[in-house]
């Protein structure tokens, strides 16, 4: 178990915050938060991230897009944002967003923080094929189809560059087995915390470490 701040000194320290601010101003690197299945930019972690970034003078460097339900369209939108980043974009992906972030990190040589990520999402979501789905925040409804699964299957990526990833996992995740992510990312920096939940209850505590990475 690792305490917040263990990656780069005291979490939230004044010197740390200034170093990160100057880094982002210099590199103008976009930080992209990628939400999970049926979620949106209104998710708890997305709002916590945006709030923290603005408090530390980094609001202009962060974006949390609302993704289409179709995986191919979601990736196209994210790749468009990545192309707009003057410096190398940085990714934070939660659950299904971690699956997307892995694909993008490998394809474009980016660094990614994966929060309780979904591994092999095309297999995990196969049982939902043909079912009606609703976005938790907007209420928008759609039919989850075999086409969704086909597009997810294309995105399945075996991580070949473990140094690009930081995994944040909680053993109390009630949706995904954290051990699958541990096994899927050998050699990556991994923080495994006892308890918690699928939403990663200690996300705000680890924001300084996420930015440090």
Provide an overview of this structure.
The chain is an alpha/beta fold and 213 residues long. The protein has one domain: 3-Layer(aba) Sandwich (Rossmann fold), CATH 3.40.50. Helix content is 38%, strand content 19%. It has 8 helices and 8 strands. The strands form 2 sheets. A 6-stranded parallel sheet has the order 2-1-3-4-7-8, with helices on both faces. A hairpin with a 6-residue loop joins strand 5 (131-134) and strand 6 (141-144). The protein is globular, with a radius of gyration of 16 Å. The protein starts with 13 loop residues before the first helix and ends with a helix.
Task: Describe how the helices and strands are arranged.
Elements: H1 14-27, E1 29-34, H2 44-55, E2 62-63, H3 71-84, E3 87-94, H4 96-108, E4 111-115, H5 121-124, E5 131-134, E6 141-144, H6 146-155, E7 165-170, H7 178-184, E8 189-193, H8 207-212
CATH arch. level architecture = 3-Layer(aba) Sandwich
- Overall helicity: 25-40%
Question: Would you give the CATH topology?
Answer: Rossmann fold
- Overall shape: it is globular
Indicate the low-confidence ranges by residue numbers.
1-15
* Proportion of residues in β-strands: 15-25%
Number of domains: 1
Secondary structure: number of strands: 8
Q: Tell me the CATH superfamily.
A: Alpha/Beta hydrolase fold, catalytic domain
Strand order of the largest sheet: 2-1-3-4-7-8
How confident is the prediction overall: mean pLDDT? 88
């Amino acid at each position: 178990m690792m305490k917040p701040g263990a990656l780069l000194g005291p979490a939230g320290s004044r010197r740390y915050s200034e170093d990160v601010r100057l880094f982002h101003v210099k590199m103008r690197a976009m930080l992209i938060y990628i939400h999970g299945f049926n979620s949106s930019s209104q998710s708890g972690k997305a709002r916590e991230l945006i709030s923290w970034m603005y408090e530390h003078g980094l609001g202009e460097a962060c974006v949390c897009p609302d993704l289409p339900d179709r995986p191919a369209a979601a990736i196209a939108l994210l790749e468009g944002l990545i192309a707009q980043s003057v410096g190398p974009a940085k990714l934070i992906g939660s659950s299904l967003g971690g699956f997307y972030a892995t694909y993008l990190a490998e394809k474009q040589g980016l660094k990614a923080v994966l929060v309780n990520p979904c591994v092999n999402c095309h297999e995990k979501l196969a049982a939902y094929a043909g079912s009606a789905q609703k976005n938790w925040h907007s209420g928008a409804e759609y039919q989850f189809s075999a086409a969704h699964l086909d597009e997810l299957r294309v995105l399945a990526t075996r991580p070949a560059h473990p140094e690009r990833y930081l995994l944040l996992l909680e053993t109390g995740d009630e949706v995904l087995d954290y051990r699958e992510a541990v096994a899927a990312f050998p050699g990556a920096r991994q923080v495994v915390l006892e308890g918690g939940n699928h939403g990663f209850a200690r996300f705000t505590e680890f924001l300084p470490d996420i930015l440090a990475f």
